[in-house]
């Protein structure tokens, strides 16, 4: 890894509490991680839960430049989730905050704790649409077509939702 770091793509989601505020706070915390800066943030999307019940999610994708190795980036993101009250009572449970490492440069990781590229990102409109907005080269028309049946809508451009006041 170069001293400039690696560009990573992070999926953000929440469907409990003040989801919009939780996502904004998570971005602030991510920007404060050692050797990390937020480069871009997508629009905010509302989507139906996939494979679960519960309220709609708010989702976005952010790109970051980081010198943290992928496992340490994941660990830092999980700490931000915990600080936001994240609990994991069962698979796909509603959550106050969900942060996923989607891509980490061109690297591939396959451990029990971290799989990159994210193993289910191509199955989820709430990942592919915001990712395509920021980096169209990271998605394909076939991937987007495969998730076109999933309910999702853009609710605010980044310049709008990042400036909202609580």
Automatic annotation (TrEMBL):
Record key words, sorted: ATP-binding, Folate biosynthesis, Kinase, Nucleotide-binding, Transferase
InterPro entries given in the database record: Hppk (IPR000550), Hppk_sf (IPR035907)
Superkingdom of this protein's organism: Bacteria
Gene Ontology MF: a single term: 2-amino-4-hydroxy-6-hydroxymethyldihydropteridine diphosphokinase activity
Gene3D superfamilies the record matches: 7,8-Dihydro-6-hydroxymethylpterin-pyrophosphokinase HPPK
Enzyme Commission no: 2.7.6.3
GO biological process: folic acid biosynthetic process; tetrahydrofolate biosynthetic process
7,8-dihydro-6-hydroxymethylpterin-pyrophosphokinase domain span: 10-136
One Pfam family recorded for the sequence: HPPK
Top-tier EC class: transferase
Protein task: Catalyzes the transfer of pyrophosphate from adenosine triphosphate (ATP) to 6-hydroxymethyl-7,8-dihydropterin, an enzymatic step in folate biosynthesis pathway.
Family assignment from sequence similarity: Belongs to the HPPK family.
Protein name: 2-amino-4-hydroxy-6-hydroxymethyldihydropteridine pyrophosphokinase
Species assigned in the record: Pulveribacter suum
This protein's encoding gene: folK
């Amino acid at each position: 890894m170069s001293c400039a770091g690696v560009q990573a793509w992070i999926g953000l989601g929440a469907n409990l509490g003040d989801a919009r505020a939780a996502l904004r706070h998570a971005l602030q915390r991510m920007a404060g991680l050692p050797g990390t800066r937020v480069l871009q943030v997508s629009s905010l999307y509302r989507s139906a839960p996939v494979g679960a019940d519960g309220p709609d999610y708010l989702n976005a994708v952010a790109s970051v430049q980081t010198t943290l190795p992928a496992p340490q980036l994941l660990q830092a993101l999980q700490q931000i989730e915990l600080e936001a009250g994240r609990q994991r009572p069962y698979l796909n449970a509603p959550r106050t905050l969900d942060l996923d490492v989607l891509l980490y440069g061109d690297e591939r990781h396959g451990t029990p704790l971290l799989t990159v590229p994210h193993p289910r990102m191509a199955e989820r409109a709430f990942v592919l649409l915001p990712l395509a907005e920021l980096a169209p080269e990271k998605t394909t028309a076939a991937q987007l077509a495969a998730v076109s049946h999933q309910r999702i809508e853009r609710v605010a451009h980044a310049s709008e939702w990042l400036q909202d006041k609580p």
